[in-house]
Amino acid sequence: MTLSRSTRITSELPNKHISTSNLVLRMLSRYNNQTSPWVKEKALPENQRSKRFEVYPRDGAFEAGSTATFCCILPAGERFHKMYLSGYNGVNMRSTRISNQTYALTLNLNEASNVCIDVKCKTNRTTYGACAFVGYPPGDKDLQCETQDLKSVECRWTVGRNTQFWSRTKYQLQGRYNGSKGRCSLKMLVKAGETNWTLTASNRLGTVELHDRADLTKRVRMFAPEEVTASTINSRNVSLKWRWTVDEYEHLNLTCEVQGVHGETSSTSKTSGVGLNAAVLTDLMPNWTYEVTVRCRTETWRWGNWSRGLDFHTKGDVPDALDVWMQMKENQVVVVWKMPLTNQSHGEITDYEVTWANTTTRVPPSEHSLTLRLDTSEEHNITVTAWNINGSSSPSTVTTPNISPVNSSWITGSNGSFMLSWPVSPASSCGYIIDWCPTLDCQTVDWIKVPANSTNVTIFSSKDGLRYSLSIYACTEGAPVLLERREGYEKLFKSLEVKQQEMDAEVSWEKIPVRQQPAFIRGFTLYYWNKDNTVFNVSTGENTEERWTSTNIHYCCSEVWGHPDNSIFSMKTPTSIHSIPADSGEGRGHPRQVTSLSQGYIQRQTITLTFTPTGRTCKLLDLLFIECDLHFKNCFSYKNKDISK
């Protein structure tokens, strides 16, 4: 029995790249651990010698990170010098002689390149080369298909990293469509039931297949509704209709979202149904302009496109109930209410109606208070309503309290506000009311209502130089109960100015009107200290002018501490502070009895003044009201007059 076998030998280098003049083959066989002798050597037929310079492979494609071998075949008569890559840094490069005419360059292509890489082979006479491309196979993933009109399929996927190839990756959907990066479509009738969808992405280095299985009748990314109209417009809702451009939508189970927008506010509603083409948008504001848009989707698939906006204006309605409060002034009660905002009036306010006892009066829309002559020792129920062309608001009632004496305390504001807190009151059944106004000129009180679960609030109404009276009431079903009174101010000095000439400085401030002074101002004191916190001060005595000149500060600093380069100054004022009896009715029209209590801190304001003679610095920082002793030191004068004598 004769056995025959054929064998194919593959070199890592293409045979045509090798001169075969010295290439021979020998063969042997091995069977049952027995080996035959070598058969006769046989020389392969020699290829015709190359008459031209060649570098292979030409226009080859390689994956980044792979090892590649390039061949250089020399023409007869030329000597090899070297092989290298132009403009590319490969690693582990080595050149190998294959035969007299053939040389190889092997290296690791460690990074991709978006341009052709020149592979150079240099001889003793010239240099030739070939082009090589280094990139990546496709890395696309996450195929997902859907439809819009049920007559075509649209698929999207995540495109992989840049392959760096000059030739684009080719895409095919179901093997018969060339798509583009990340998106392609196919014309075909979509039927109910799951279908397998396959996308093939390929380039010179490889191919990847992406798969998706879905029933596309449940994956309809819908077109925007057309011709959206408002069939019925009411004060707080609107009925809408629209039309579909795809007839098949009439048989789908849809969910539609309707959104009405006004500025930064919006109202949204969702409705579901088969072939839905109408909806009602609720919770709208009366007498308000909206822009409404609609979009829909099938089951849990993604939302379709928004429709074009439709503008409409809701009808008016009666005003909302007013926010009403009162202010007690001797035998008068001032009923006050806040002007309704546009989203509360629901139309132009025509007037207000105030009712007490058996009396009713009308108040024009420009006014928001009414003064009544009533016995303040008794309780009175006062009701206020607002009117527009649609009717009257619900009545708002305030009951005047019979106020009993309560404790009064001081409070200090900051940054244009007062921060108040108080203990929980068992008398409160509907929260708390805090009102406030300037103590010495309380024309109209302001107020805020706080829910029952809160016992603190910040009032943003304080003005520099004004003393405020604040009252805290417990809200009840009847008359409010006065719990506490507070008095305070934020900043007495409205501004400080400093004029500097060499080592002299003049500090000035706006004059404080007597009616705005929280205490009797007795004078001013200059305090200053260095970084060691050693304090020095000088006072004007009983002088209350609004200007003060300090001379030769550098000399003073040196004389007192010997550290003139970092001293800080502070202005303070001695005052007399007065108490206000709890039942005096301060700020509400009652005569005021004051009792002098003590001297002490009233207010502080900071400025900075820097003197830089020969690089030395002194700083003037604070202007305050404070108790002080009348003693003087040299170097400082008032209005350029020496007051140290």
Automatic annotation (TrEMBL):
Source species taxonomy: Eukaryota, Metazoa, Chordata, Craniata, Vertebrata
Protein name: Fibronectin type-III domain-containing protein
Domain of life: Eukaryota
Residues in Fibronectin type-III domain copies: 224-317, 318-406
UniProt xrefs under Pfam families: fn3 (PF00041), LIFR_D4 (PF25552)
